[in-house]
Design goal:
The protein has 326 residues and is of the alpha/beta class. It has 2 domains: 132 residues, Rossmann fold; 177 residues, Rossmann fold (3-Layer(aba) Sandwich), CATH 3.40.50. The protein contains 11 helices and 12 strands. The strands form 2 sheets. Strands 8-7-6-9-10-11-12 form a 7-stranded parallel β-sheet, with helices on both faces. A 5-stranded parallel β-sheet has the order 2-1-3-4-5.
Length: 326
């Protein structure tokens, strides 16, 4: 019997991750093109494909898991598994693991960057200066330390974002399903509606689920301050995108910083791109060299440990009930 194969749903993964996988006795196959349901079902129908190192968000559906003959583990290169049918994976006895916290610092830094740029209207001034306009002494921006920032979702990314925001002097209000012990100076707001009314900046860090899909829509934009800013480095569908466009055009909110979109990649004609009070990036909040190495390393360690009957870090295991050991 040949070596087990780890299928990487991308053209590459860090050299250290590849080294760990090969030292663990596995071969590696890459999927450099578009990775859809058909491609995954075909690739996983082979007996020797034992693991998927999941980069991006290709669909791991019931059809894909039903076709998989030798698959034992899906290891996410990151934390979001909204493209994975978790119930199906569990029914088929397939472990799903994440690289917990590996990209948290990178995403938190990116979220803070979007907040600061929007609070100080950097995109506007950059655009106007390039067009020959000089400063308007009648127009002033806000100092970030005077603002109140609402953090929705307090996992590892949300926690790190909150700490960075607090370090910059802004007030932090956290909304989460749990009741964490917050650092001194932060406050917990269990009611999302009340949080929306209080904050100058709303930063989203919750996972995409049936409950959070479209969670921030027209009614909730209407509850926010007229000068409020929305930042999304989580998942695009958490925001009702047409409602966001309407709120930005009407002045219901002042600006938006988006690293994620309802459809990715977004259409070039997306109306958000025509709005001057929107700052966009192409889902690259986690794309730092450091985070790539950490995510790849943890994903590879999750795989190699599991294939020899061990668990690398139980905090990364989303469906531990499938684990049967050696």
């Amino acid at each position: 019997m040949g070596k087990p194969v780890v299928l990487v749903t991308a053209a590459t993964v860090s050299e250290l991750a590849q080294k760990l996988l090969r030292e663990g006795g596995a071969d590696i196959e890459f999927m450099p093109g578009a990775v859809d349901e058909d491609a995954l079902a075909t690739a996983l129908a082979r007996d020797h494909v034992a693991a998927v190192l999941l980069r991006g968000s290709p669909p791991l559906t019931e059809r894909v898991f039903a076709a998989a003959r030798g698959l034992k583990i899906v290891a996410k290169h990151g934390a979001g598994v909204d493209s994975v049918d978790m119930a199906s994976a569990t029914r088929h006895g397939i472990a799903v693991m994440v690289a917990g916290g590996a990209n948290a610092d990178a995403v938190a830094e990116h979220a803070l960057t979007l907040m600061l740029c929007l609070a100080r209207e950097v995109p506007r001034f950059d655009r106007e200066t390039r067009c020959g306009a000089w400063r308007d002494l009648k127009h002033f921006t806000r100092e970030f330390h005077t603002l109140t920032v609402g953090i929705v979702g307090y996992g590892q990314i949300g926690e790190r974002t909150a700490r960075l925001v607090q370090a910059c002097g802004a007030k932090v209000v956290v909304h989460t399903r749990s009741k964490p012990a917050l650092p001194e100076g932060m406050t917990l707001e269990t009611d999302l509606e009340r949080l929306l009314e209080r904050v100058d900046v709303l930063s989203l860090h919750c996972p995409l689920t049936d409950k959070t899909r479209g969670m921030i829509g027209a009614a909730r934009f209407a509850r926010m301050k007229p000068g409020a800013i929305v930042v999304n480095t989580a998942r695009g569908p958490i925001i009702d995108e047409p409602a966001l466009v309407a709120a930005l055009k009407s002045g219901t909110i002042a600006g938006a910083g988006l690293d994620t979109f309802a459809t990715e990649p977004p259409d070039a004609a997306n109306p958000l791109f025509a709005l001057p009070n929107v700052l966009v990036t192409p889902h690259i909040a986690a794309a730092t060299t450091d985070a790539m190495v950490r995510m790849g390393t943890i994903a590879a360690s999750n795989i190699t440990s599991y294939l020899r009957g061990e668990v690398y870090d139980r905090r990364n295991f989303l469906n531990p009930e499938v684990f049967k050991g050696v």
